[in-house]
């Protein structure tokens, strides 16, 4: 088969919770990154996952089925994106394939570090914050964190646009004005549709982490890294 007739590479973007609306929001967020000559994005929902990944138990519970999905799609995908801000099963998945596996939390934070000295994170629930702080500590970037604040909404409640937008803007303003964040990271893939309004309201860069991970996946696929 010639280079011109070869099918574009495929990047599998996995929503590890079972809420299809979240997957649909992720797919819409990736529209600016889609190119006719690829790589192409395929967004899928992990049917075995909970409606939202909100606890460490939720994180641990999806590692097995997530790994089986990645192993089963290894032959026809060039890269994988785990679209949950807890990066469930990230390191286990990297043992299952030689293809790139990107976690949106890791990639979102790394992008934020290029956009400002201090970053803030908008979490869904207060109980999410200790889990995220453990991850930031493992990444060695805690000293760059301005603060992490929660909007107090569960994953399934993020589909209410008026309430979610208002709470995210209020939380983002506190991160910027009270805690000195130069850039804000949205700490849940279910927030994807709110990046534009949030950035307009805050006047600072806002990172949608699935976009960050997808952009890195494109780069690695195209460069063969």
Q: How would you sum up this structure, described in words?
A:
- The protein is of the alpha/beta class and 225 residues long.
- It has 2 domains: 10-103 and 211-223, Rossmann fold; 105-208, Rossmann fold, CATH 3.40.50.
- It is built from 8 helices and 8 strands.
- It has helices at 20-29, 56-72, 90-94, 104-115, 128-139, 161-178, 195-202, 209-223, and strands at residues 10-15, 40-45, 79-82, 101-103, 119-123, 145-150, 183-186, 206-207.
- The strands form 2 sheets. The protein has a 4-stranded parallel sheet with strand order 2-1-3-4. Strands 6-5-7-8 form a 4-stranded parallel sheet, with helices on both faces.
- Helix 6 packs parallel to helix 7.
- The radius of gyration is 17 Å and the shape is globular.
- The mean pLDDT is 94.
Rounded average pLDDT: 94
Reading the helices and strands in chain order gives EHEHEHEHEHEHEHEH
Per DSSP E runs of 2 or more residues, the count of β-strands stands at: 8
Beta-strand proportion: 15-25%
- Low-pLDDT runs of 5+ residues are none
Major beta sheet summary = 4 strands, parallel
What portion of residues is helical? Answer: 40-55%
Strand order of the largest sheet: 2-1-3-4
């Amino acid at each position: 088969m010639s280079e011109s007739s070869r099918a574009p590479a495929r990047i599998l973007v996995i929503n590890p919770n079972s809420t299809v609306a979240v997957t649909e929001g992720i797919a819409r967020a990736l529209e600016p990154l889609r190119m006719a000559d690829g790589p192409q994005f395929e967004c899928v929902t992990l049917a075995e996952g909970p409606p939202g990944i909100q606890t460490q138990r939720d994180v641990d519970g999806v590692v097995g089925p997530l790994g089986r999905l990645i192993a089963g799609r290894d032959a026809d995908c060039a890269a994988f994106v785990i679209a949950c801000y807890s990066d469930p099963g990230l390191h286990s998945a990297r043992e299952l394939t030689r293809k790139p596996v990107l976690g949106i939390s890791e990639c979102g934070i790394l992008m934020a570090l290029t956009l400002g000295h201090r970053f803030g994170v908008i979490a869904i629930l207060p109980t999410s914050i200790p889990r995220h702080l453990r991850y930031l500590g493992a990444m060695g970037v805690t000293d760059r964190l301005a603060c992490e604040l929660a909007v107090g909404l569960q994953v399934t409640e993020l589909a209410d646009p008026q309430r979610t937008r208002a709470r995210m803007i209020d939380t983002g303003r506190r991160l910027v004005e009270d805690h000195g964040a130069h850039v804000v990271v949205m700490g849940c893939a279910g927030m994807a549709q709110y990046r534009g309004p949030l950035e307009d309201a805050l006047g600072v860069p806002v990172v949608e982490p699935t976009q960050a991970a997808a952009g890195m996946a494109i780069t690695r696929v195209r460069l063969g890294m």
